[in-house]
Amino acid sequence: MDETLHSVTLEQPVRGYPKSPNYTGLAGNTLAHNPRSLDDIFKQNTTVGLGITYSTKQYQKGSLQVQKKLLQSTSNSTINTKQHLKAYRQQKKKISKPKSSTSSVPSPLNPNLLPHAHSSLGRPSAKRAQNEEKDTCQPKTHIVFLKTHKTASSTILNILYRFGESRNLTFALPLSKHSQLFYPLYFTSLFVEGFKSRTVKEYDIMCNHMRFLSSEVKKVMPADSFYFSIVRNPVTMMESIFSYYKSIPAFLRKRNLDEFLENPWKHYNASLNNNHYAKNLLTFDFGFNNNANDNERYTNLSITMIENTFDLILVSEYFDESMILLKNALCWKLDDVVSFKLNSRSNKTRQDLSRRAMEKIKQWNSLDWKLYLHFNATFWKKIDETVGREEMEREVERLRERRVQLMKTCLQDEGAVDPSQIKDTSLKPFQYGAAVIQGYNLNPELDEITKSKCQSLIMPELQYTALL
Questions:
Q1: Which residues contact 147 (CB under 8 A, 6 or more apart)?
Q2: Where is the composition biased (Low complexity) (predicted)?
């Protein structure tokens, strides 16, 4: 779920192009070893909690116990509890005994001595490389998108749905027509429709909400899949989270975000269901411990593992630039990535944040803040190494012009409206928490072919998922 961005002062301006950052990264972006996944790291004794060291077996058992409790607490949902408890038991049997080892997680080396993950050393110039790629690349159709929360991810989901549907691609959808892959449980292949029964031979796109677990995703998706995700400034993200998830225990009786931030530990209990939304949500979605101690070693390791798994990390504040990077990386066309903002909030439910509140959010969500700083910097390095700033400006302008054209053609109001003003109730977005989620009205004079294409641009996430 996502929304229109809330304007606050950032480390880099939202509008215009920042200078090439001198930021060198928190971890140097790679270990001096072969690339490691989350699962490789946990083959050793790994710190995953508040200063407590767990073995692999303890970590996996703990995760499974949490899943069991969560599954048993979903009696009011559409989850088949018995079926997933059976899956839980099967997964528990597969836990392998850890190798006897007393070694700890390898600490990243001096970042100044390590090559950058996106180093341009020995590569052709950005313009030459781009021209060569245009002549040879084929559109990628095997895609994994980690759909993070409140980051414009619903708009990206719509882009992927439209691309896949128009090409008859197969989506790795949740069981029982669920809208999420049983989030907030760690993802397992058994959560995918048709996987256990083997009624689906191959999946092309995975893009619904999940808590990422690389080894399980790889069981489902082809080996050549393109992995990407998106991050957002934790300051604006927290303001959005508070509005949207107002009913979680941590926020329930708080008049506003400032009241929560005055003493967050007083209101936050990590053991209560859904309270993970209140702290380091990006870290949680990527599969890490959102309650871990904030130390350089843990952050470095998290960043390294993300970079070793994902081909591209986008930035919500630069959504159009992100779409150009994505288009080029996937070898898609401009119309494939054009979109309207979906799941955006009305300005009525936005809260202006003081400078003091912003700093408190950075401290409270310090793990997310460090992830954001790192991937915001590498985002611009990626642009410099591939498209270049000037060409990016031109491509963004073309994308925005195309969006305006489609809005004039498709929409009656040429913009988003509050839910009370949406005439077709089947196109009304799901309303949750204290947020007022806006939608669109179609131009009533469209022919059937144009209407179908325009409708896919504005279809809310839940309706589109059910349709597929």
A1: 153, 154, 156, 157, 207, 208, 209, 210, 229
A2: 98-115
Token pair, residue 187, equals: 């993802």
Other C-beta atoms lying within 10 Å of the C-beta of residue 16: 7
- The CA distance from 380 to 11, in Å, is 13
Residue 237 near residue 371 (C-beta atoms within 8 A): no
How confident is the model over 234-286, as pLDDT tens digits?
999 999 999 999 999 999 989 999 999 999 999 999 999 999 999 999 999 99
Of 21, 238, 28, the residue nearest 118 (C-alpha): 28
SS3 content of the chain, % helix, strand, coil (to 5): 45, 5, 45
Residues 6+ apart with CB under 8 A from 123: 129, 385
H helices of 365-438, in order, are 366-385, 389-410
In angstroms, the CA 210 to CA 196 distance is: 18
143-467 maps to which CATH number?
Answer: 3.40.50
Residue 314 carries which side chain, given as an amino acid letter?
Answer: L
Listed by start position, the domains of the chain span 143-467
Q: How many CB atoms lie within 10 A of CB 461?
A: 24
Answer yes or no: pTM beyond 0.70: yes
User: In which residue are the tokens 């899956």 written?
Assistant: 87
Q: Give the type of residue at 468.
A: L
SS3 category, 47: strand
**What's the number of CA atoms in the CB half-sphere (13 Å) around residue 210?**
26
Interatomic CA distance for residues 264 and 434, integer angstroms: 20
Is 146:221 a contact under the CB 8 Å cutoff?
no
What does the pLDDT look like over 142-196, one tens digit per residue? 999 999 999 999 999 999 999 999 999 999 999 988 889 999 999 999 999 999 9
Helices (H), ranges, 27-170:
38-41, 56-72, 81-93, 126-136, 153-166
H/E segment holding residue 453: helix 448-458
Once rounded to an integer, what is the mean pLDDT over residues 384-395? 97
Pull the structure tokens for residue 239. Answer: 């303001």
Q: List b or e across 367-404, with b for residues whose CB sees 16 or more CB atoms inside 10 angstroms.
A: bbbbbbbbbbbbbbbbbebbbeeebbeebbeebeeebe
